[in-house]
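Can't paste images in this forum, so I'm doing it all in text. The chain is below; anyone willing to post the predicted structure tokens underneath?
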Amino acid sequence: MVQHLVDLLDAWLPTYQDDWVMAVLTQVQGSSYRKPGAMMFFHPMGKSLGMLSGGCLEADLRRHAQRAIQNQQVLQLTFDATDESDSSYQLGCGGIVNIMMVSLNKANNYLGLVKVHDALMRGDSGFYQLNIANDGAPSHGITGQFIEQKKDSATQVTLNSKTEKHLQAQNTILSIPLRPPVHIGIFGGGLDAQPLAQMAQTMGWKVTVCDERTAYARIYDFPGCQIIKHPTSSISLDILTSLDAAFVMSHNLNIDANTLKALQPLALAYISLLGPAHRRDKVLDIAKLHVADFSGFFSAPAGLALGGELPGSVALSMLSQCHGVLYKSSLTHLDTVML
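Text version of the structure:
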């Protein structure tokens, strides 16, 4: 299920002038399914976009959304799952979550979400600042704005940046870090690349598939992906530098070598090369490169040792490893497969 904010806003924009309600998770005590800053949107006809729990709260939030529309007032809701004997919501996470619901309308400039969408589509990172109001406050008094992060800023918006609250001019501001969806490049458009692309898109990642060969990377085999039919060396630098990770899997020694030569100067967090160790050595020798030449995490043989040999299993192992690197998890067992 796609949950990145860009996808939610894509679905919201065509009817954004309707009486939508935004629900935002503002605080968590203990554990919860989603983290502070997570958003969900409710349409007056019952449609919803996104999720704030594993399905435990959404029906109740839909009912509250109707009240927010009718009253045009802020709703502050608290759901407490610390009492395991209380089956009211069955959150399952055992925590306390606070959720603010606000009607989106012309009077509050739709909380600046149109500009948020524009910024993320441009590839900008930054912070969405939303003021927190008391329960019952008029919705037209709520403001939201996107603050673009300067390219030379010391504060980087990373995948695991945290939402924070702070005071600003006697107002409590929720500062939500935003960045474009993860963008991966798959260099090789064969059959085994298809499940990799499908799984990545399911997670809300943007996928670009590159293969110069006529019979590979066909549009109908990779729906929803950007397809590039050029050698890696001739691909636009703007596209290459927008990548967070790359999967090199053409099964051709020279094509893979040329791809690694083009990717090596880039600051990619993760690069994987499909194939056994002896093939890795041949590809690196052709490219005149060494493992130590890559600034990010270089995985060859690619992926985690999860078992399985079919394309779906291989894709799962590579995406799991990539996900851990991008989100900076401990990955304490990866050193056994990174070379």
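Residues 311-326 form the longest helix (16 residues). The radius of gyration is 23 Å.
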